[in-house]
Each structure stands twice: as structure tokens, then as C-alpha cells.
Amino acid sequence: MTPDSMARVDVAAARSGLDSFGLMLRAGEAVAAAALRRFPGALRFLVLCGPGNNGGDGYVTASALSRAGATVLLHGLAESSALKGDAARAQSLCGLPVLSLDRFAPLKGDVVIDALFGAGLTRDLPEAARVLIRTVRDAGLPVIAVDLPSGIDGATGEIRGDAFEAVSTVTFMTRKPGHILLPGRLHCGALEVFDIGIPRRIVEAEARALWINGPGIWNGHARALSAQDHKYRRGHVTVFSGPYAATGAARLSADAALKAGAGIVTLASPADALAINAAHVTAVMLARIDTASDLSAWLSDARRSTFVLGPGFGDLDRARRFAVMVAEVGRRLVLDADGISAFKASADQLRGLFEAHAPRLVVTPHEGEFLRLFPDIAADQGLGKVGKALSAAKALGGIVVYKGGDTVIASPDGRAAIEENAPATLATAGSGDVLAGIIGARLANGMPAFEAACAGVYQHGQAAISAGHGLTAEDLAAHILVDG
């Protein structure tokens, strides 16, 4: 859930009759329990409390730790008189003296509990908080963050000036985008999610259609294998090859599509690359497609349902022409690499070509390609990665797979998923070509475009995990599991 959604949950919970202070008590006590479990031998717990409800959680935490027999020093960013509502009540009931931040003097063996700002931060940290973060970092003290390390924007994962680097983060009810998106994810350490007693019906009523990517998104859309299957029933993927000196990327896509479950895959090759491609493929079929006339004849067979265009393609003008032809006959298309570059700043043209009741276009841009295709959206500093991907999907009328270590899959209907299990080993040449092929296979199997993209991204990450260190793009296809 986004921080805004979680704030609505808190309001709805109070309106339903739940005691908001009771929720704060459970949150703070959960943090205290986590701290004692993780650091039973701490010299002292230094609890840093901010001016809002995150600070209120901190005051409850400090009180619970003290009752458990731990030594606690409490530091407040705001004067007690400035606190309001549940935070003020938590501070008054705590009973411990509140020291100013300028009296913060850490010792070896201390553990810091960060309850300054949490997930609701939307502005840069004040200088006093930045100084405190630098002091803790220089002292090398472990930090437990309440909700989210202070300095991380809960909606975008971005760093607001500086941020604590926690060994553990305790959050409540659900994860927030800042826990999953980079660079915030790298600051959270081990993440624990505690149910503090808000009914699920209230959480679901206020939630956006935002998920951690996983099989629950597409399980109901996966077509089971059948003894009655034949290759065309499992779907035909056509992958366009580049010229003779740039054929490898398309072969990676084609091989991945076949391994990911397409019934038949054809490499559509220009004449000058036929011999090279023929020397490298066996189960992947080969067809000569040089001209628009060649493609028109190929498209006359309706069983050729799904296309991958862009990996190593090279000729941007021809890429545009081919994409238009695929669109005009109602086929599904995964647009990657040079296919994306061919439509620089022309997302509206793609929308006009592929606009339909159900999306049938998937684009898979990395950061630079996203900037080329959606320059205005990429330049919007008010949007995080999820917001940019959703805005792009709406502008495109198709599915956007905004790649990276925190890939976001977005649909024009407002659904989005964030991939959290893609290992850093995927940062290797050709990895994106493999992903395009996997998504193409899922589309050819008959999955709706959003679910196909989510499944493809997940399979891609799982294949990389299976391949282990030192993987190359060629290794990925061999580790693809069709059941994801």
C-alpha cells in the first residue's frame, strides 16, 4: 500500500470504532519485541522520536523496552508541547525524560531505534535529522527503523537528502513502495510486517491495485497443458531478427520464447542473415522476411498471433513499418530495444495503433528507453517509478515493463506490480532480449497482457536465481521454468 492509502486505512479504522491509540500501542510494542529479539545484549536503546505518529510509535517502543528492563534513552525532534493526538498521549504516558537531539551521545554497544518520520515523508529531511544520521553512521551503530528508515520516501523509495541504513525495519499491515523500490529497499535491512489488528476488509477497501509481483497475479490466467494440445494451440511467436552482424539478440528472444512454453517460434530473418541464423537454430523455425510484402504474406496466417520486435533489429524506419502492420491485423506485440527507439517520443502513435478493449502491446524499456519513449513523463520529478510507469501505461494504452533492479509492470487500467526478486546478475548484455521472449511466450499462450508481463518478469528473475553467479544471457533460457 502507498502511504496515502495507509493513511486512509488509519482513518477508516478509527471511524469503524477501533481505538487508534490501541493500534499505536500494538505497533510500538511490536517494535520493542523485535528490538529485544534481535539485540538481547544491547547496552542501551537510543530511541529517536519525530513529531508525528511515527514518533508516537517510538514513545510506546521506549516505554515497552523500559518495562522489559532495558536501558533506554529517549530523544525527541520536537518539543513535547508541539505533539498532537495519539503521539502526544504516547509521550505523556511514556514517563521517560525526553532529551533534545543535540544531547545525542552514542556509545559502543548502543542500538538506535529510528522513529523520526516513517513512510509518510514527502519532503527533504531537516538538517538536524541529517546531522543525526551522519553521527549514527560514523559511530557504526545498528539501526532498527519504525515503518521505514527516516529519509526514505515511502511512495517512491527515493532518498530525501539522507537516510538511515537500517539492519531491520518493522512496518505494519502491509509493505509500502519505499520498502521495495530502489534505493529505499537497500536501506531497510530485514523487513518484518506486523498485523496490528486492522481488519482486512478495511485494508482492502482503501488499497490501490498495487502488488508485489508473484504467481497470485496470473495463476487464474495460466492455461494448463492438455493431452489435446498441439504446437499452434500453445501459441506461435514470431521474433524479428536484425541484419547479419546483429542476429544474436533475436535468437536469445526466440530461444527464450520456446523454453518459456510457446508451441512454435519462428525467427523472421532478413535475407542477409538467413545463413547465420540457420547455423545457430534447430527447434526454432526460420523464415525470410525482408520487406513489407513478405510480412504481409506472413500475417495472412492468423495462427501467427504474437510478435517480438526490437532486439538487435537496427533499422528504425523498418521497425516502425513492421509494428504498424502487426497492429493493423490485430496481433499482439512485445516491443523492446530498437523497437522502442523507433517510436521515440511517439507513445501517442503507438496508442492509436494498438488501442483496443484489451491491451495487446507490451513495451519493455530500461531507463534510457523509457526517457526516449516517454520524455515528458520521465522528466516529471513529482512521480516515482510506479507513478511514471502507470502514467506511461495510460498514455500508451498498453502494458509498460519499466525495467531495473525494481522492475515495475503497469497497466492502463491502474494496476501495477513491483518485482522484488530479480538478482543483480541480470545486469548483463542480452538479459532484456530473453525477457522479451518470455513475455512473448506468455502472450502466445493466451494470457492477458498485464498478467503475461508479470509472469514473464517473474520467470526471468527466477531463471537468473537458478542460474547463479556468472550467468550470461545464454544461460538464462536454459533455466526458465514453464510453470514459473
Structure description:
- Residues 6-204 form the YjeF N-terminal domain.
- It comes from Peteryoungia aggregata LMG 23059.
- This is Bifunctional NAD(P)H-hydrate repair enzyme.
- Keywords: ATP-binding, Isomerase, Lyase, Metal-binding, Multifunctional enzyme, NAD, NADP, Nucleotide-binding, Potassium.
- AMP binds at residues 403-407, 432.
- The longest helix is centred in the N-terminal third of the chain and has 19 residues, at 20-38.
- Helix 1 packs across helix 7, helix 3 runs parallel beside helix 4 and helix 8 (248-259) packs across helix 17.
- By secondary structure, the chain is of the alpha/beta class.
- The chain is elongated.
- The strands form two sheets. The protein has a ten-stranded mixed β-sheet, with helices on both faces. The chain has a seven-stranded parallel β-sheet with strand order 3-2-1-4-5-6-7, with helices on one face.
- Helix 8 links the parallel strand 9 and strand 10 (264-269).
- It has 19 helices and 17 strands.
- The protein starts with a helix and ends in a 6-residue tail after the last helix.
- It folds into two domains: 3-208, 3-Layer(aba) Sandwich (Rossmann fold), CATH 3.40.50.10260; 215-478, UDP-N-acetylmuramoyl-L-alanine:D-glutamate ligase.
- 40% of the residues lie in helices and 15% in strands.
* Radius of gyration computed on alpha carbons: 26 Å
Shape: elongated
Number of helices in the DSSP assignment: 19
The portion of residues forming beta strands comes to 15-25%
Under CATH, the topology of the largest domain can be stated as UDP-N-acetylmuramoyl-L-alanine:D-glutamate ligase
CATH class wording of the largest domain: Alpha Beta
Q: What's the β-strand tally?
A: 17
The largest sheet, given as strand count, sense and whether it forms a barrel, is: 10 strands, mixed
Give the termini distance in whole angstroms: 25 Å
The number of domains: 2
CATH superfamily of the largest domain: Ribokinase
Backbone structural class: alpha/beta
Uncertain runs: none
Mean model confidence by pLDDT = 95
The strand order across the widest sheet is: 8-17-16-15-14-13-12-9-10-11
Fraction in helix: 25-40%
CATH architecture of the largest domain: 3-Layer(aba) Sandwich
EC number: 4.2.1.136, 5.1.99.6
Binding site for AMP: 403-407, 432
Domain YjeF C-terminal: 214-484
Subunit structure: Homotetramer.
